[in-house]
């Protein structure tokens, strides 16, 4: 299988209970459920000689695969030292288990960090023939395309589609999701193709297929082309040209702008935030065929979310960034890093308030979302003021559940058609447009 | 002992033709069965004689890169030879760069910790014999400094890396195409006979 993990530690058995609780809290949305499923599955334990457990959260943002591409690139990981475990099973103390649970959550965001602990370290010491085995290929391609991140990107695009004020068209939805997924796979593969020696030197990314020589660079590029070209073609011809153009632009932005910029200037974070914001916009344009204010608002929400998420995460990775030559705010401009994170937490409150103005949601949305927005802003403020590891971790973990929760609330507060029809606004226009773009 | 082999200089500015320094950290792979591979001598690893593929090893402890032992087929075409040599060069360059860079990082980090501890009036090791460390906030100054000091070096390396990566991948494409055409011609000949 793709994901193999080995729960050796009895202390970890406490986690499922907490996990189930988490599930109950957000159980009425398939996407959220799947998201938490990913969290459960993306458990990483990888220990080496010093027995430090490494959680590998997704890089920048959970919900944007393109961003994830970047994010994962940025190797967010939180290293948590635990006491050495002798070969005989030993119960970890309570706090370590809790910390492990936290790391499991964060590890959910990593795409390829789930490994069998013992098997992996043994494998690592051996010389291997560089021969591509066909039964390994699906797993290798999944890791190459960062399939988990891609899935989360597709969820954000679906959220964009779902929020669009048009009747739901299943065919269009599936085509848009598939096209977005393929485009994301392509972008992720090219990203890994560009970053082999840097990935080798970072703990989070050192087990990637190209780093380990499981696949040749030529094959990686061919795979990227065979995903990207059909993906964009599908979006352009099967959905609409606008969505196709956005998809192609996003691939370009991620692979040719963000990836090289990571090593040149701190501005890469802003470019990466745009990359993360585009998928929901694509979902919206797939449904409506046009770039409305609603699309931009959704994109704006995701754009703002990236900053507290990534900046908090990057706070704990400064050593690896410094050694690897990555230009990140947390290393070069720490004050700016925290300011920007706080600024965008507050922006989320503002953007949530704009949603009803644009007729995307009812007025209940800013009210219901206020507690979670205020909470993340509070953690953002603590991070700004304290500038230490614990506040950065708190902010990061909050961002992990904040986004799915926000999107969920947004969806439940979506303005229904009936109300809009009564107002006699552009719904009629939207409907006809939706008809036009449907497949023959 | 490492074998210093003279290779073409190529476009790499760091490459001094040192193919296999102390890169092999593994305990050695399958025993050599008289297999003849050019680079295996230095890497303390010889793939089995029957294998006609490249072999990749565990990460080097200095550079964290995985060394590759390349297979030389008996009738290697000039194009395939170019590809193999380009990959060998690239490997040597990368190995050299990262080993040096990581070593410098570790060294400067030690020096920084030492100087900070001294300024604080503390010793490198405390009473229990544990190595004293600084927390992340104190190390932040070092990380920032190190990154800006090495910025130019990284820019140069990035440029070289992208160029080499594209060249090698393009050569791989050419070789794959040539091989496919050869096989097709061979099949046609067989079918003709």
Automatic annotation (TrEMBL), chain A:
Its EC number is 2.5.1.141. The chain crosses the membrane at residues 242-259, 266-287, 363-383, 395-412. It holds the Pfam family UbiA. The keyword Transmembrane helix applies. GO terms for cellular component: mitochondrial membrane. Signal peptide: none annotated. Its main location: mitochondrion. It catalyses: heme b + (2E,6E)-farnesyl diphosphate + H2O = Fe(II)-heme o + diphosphate. InterPro entries: Protohaem_IX_farnesylTrfase, Protohaem_IX_farnesylTrfase_mt, UbiA_prenyltransferase, UbiA_prenylTrfase_CS, UbiA_sf. GO terms for molecular function: protoheme IX farnesyltransferase activity. GO terms for biological process: cytochrome complex assembly; heme A biosynthetic process. It is found in: Mitochondrion membrane. PROSITE patterns: UBIA. The keyword Amino-acid biosynthesis does not apply. Keywords: Heme biosynthesis, Membrane, Mitochondrion, Transferase, Transit peptide, Transmembrane, Transmembrane helix. It is a multi-pass membrane protein. Belongs to the UbiA prenyltransferase family. HAMAP family: CyoE_CtaB. This is Protoheme IX farnesyltransferase, mitochondrial. It comes from Opisthocomus hoazin (Hoatzin).
């Amino acid at each position: 299988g793709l994901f193999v993990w080995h729960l050796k530690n009895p202390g970890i058995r406490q986690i499922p209970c907490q996990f189930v609780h988490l599930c109950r809290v957000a159980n009425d949305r398939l996407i959220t459920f799947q998201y938490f499923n990913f969290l459960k599955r993306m458990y990483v334990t990888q220990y080496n000689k010093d027995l430090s457990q490494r959680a590998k959260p997704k890089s920048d943002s959970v919900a944007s695969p393109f961003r994830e591409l970047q994010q994962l690139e940025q190797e967010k990981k939180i290293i948590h030292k635990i006491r050495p475990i002798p070969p005989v099973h030993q119960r970890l103390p309570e706090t370590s288990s809790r910390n492990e649970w936290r790391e499991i959550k964060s590890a959910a965001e990593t795409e390829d960090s789930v490994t069998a602990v013992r098997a992996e370290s043994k494998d690592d010491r051996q010389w291997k023939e560089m021969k591509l085995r066909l039964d390994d290929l699906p797993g290798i391609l999944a890791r190459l395309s960062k399939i988990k991140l891609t899935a989360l990107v597709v969820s954000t695009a679906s959220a964009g589609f779902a929020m669009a004020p048009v009747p739901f068209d299943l065919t269009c939805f599936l085509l848009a999701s598939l096209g977005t997924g393929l485009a994301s796979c392509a972008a992720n593969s090219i990203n890994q193709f560009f970053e082999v020696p840097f990935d080798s030197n970072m703990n989070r990314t050192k087990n990637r297929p190209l780093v380990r020589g499981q696949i040749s660079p030529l094959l990686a590029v061919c795979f990227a082309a065979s995903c990207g070209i059909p993906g964009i073609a599908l979006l352009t011809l099967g959905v609409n040209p606008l969505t196709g153009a956005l998809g192609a632009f996003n691939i370009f932005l991620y692979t040719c702008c963000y990836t090289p910029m990571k090593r040149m200037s701190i501005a890469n974070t802003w470019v990466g935030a745009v990359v993360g914001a585009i998928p929901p916009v694509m979902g919206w344009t797939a449904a409506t065929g046009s770039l409305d204010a609603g699309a931009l608002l959704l994109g704006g929400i995701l754009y703002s979310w990236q900053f507290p998420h990534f900046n908090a995460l990057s706070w704990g990775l400064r050593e690896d960034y410094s050694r690897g030559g990555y230009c990140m705010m947390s290393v070069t401009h720490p004050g700016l890093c925290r300011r920007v994170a706080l600024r965008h937490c507050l922006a989320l409150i503002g953007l949530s308030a704009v949603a009803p103005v644009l007729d995307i949601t009812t007025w209940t949305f800013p009210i219901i979302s206020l507690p979670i927005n205020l909470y993340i802003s509070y953690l953002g403020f603590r991070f700004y003021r304290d500038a230490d590891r614990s506040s950065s971790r708190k902010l990061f973990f909050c961002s992990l559940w904040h986004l799915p929760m926000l999107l969920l609330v947004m969806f439940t507060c979506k303005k229904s058609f009936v109300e809009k029809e009564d107002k006699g606004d552009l719904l009629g226009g939207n409907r006809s447009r939706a008809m036009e773009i449907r497949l023959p | 002992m490492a074998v210093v082999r003279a290779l073409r200089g190529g476009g790499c500015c760091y490459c001094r033709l040192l193919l296999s320094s102390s890169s092999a950290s593994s305990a050695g792979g399958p025993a050599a069965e008289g297999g003849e591979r050019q680079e295996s001598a230095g890497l303390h690893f010889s793939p089995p004689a029957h294998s006609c593929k490249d072999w990749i090893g565990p990460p080097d402890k200095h550079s964290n890169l995985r060394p590759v032992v390349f297979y030389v087929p008996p009738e290697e075409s000039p194009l395939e030879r170019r590809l193999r040599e380009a990959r060998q060069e690239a490997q040597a360059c990368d190995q050299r760069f990262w080993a040096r860079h990581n070593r410098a990082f570790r060294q400067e980090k030690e020096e920084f910790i030492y100087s900070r501890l001294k300024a604080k009036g503390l010793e490198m090791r405390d009473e229990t014999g544990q190595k004293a460390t600084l927390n992340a906030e104190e190390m932040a100054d070092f990380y920032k400094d190190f990154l800006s000091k090495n910025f130019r070096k990284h820019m140069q390396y990035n440029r070289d890396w992208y160029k080499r990566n594209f060249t090698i991948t393009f050569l791989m494409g050419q070789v794959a195409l040539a091989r496919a055409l050869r096989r097709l011609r061979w099949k046609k000949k067989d079918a003709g006979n």
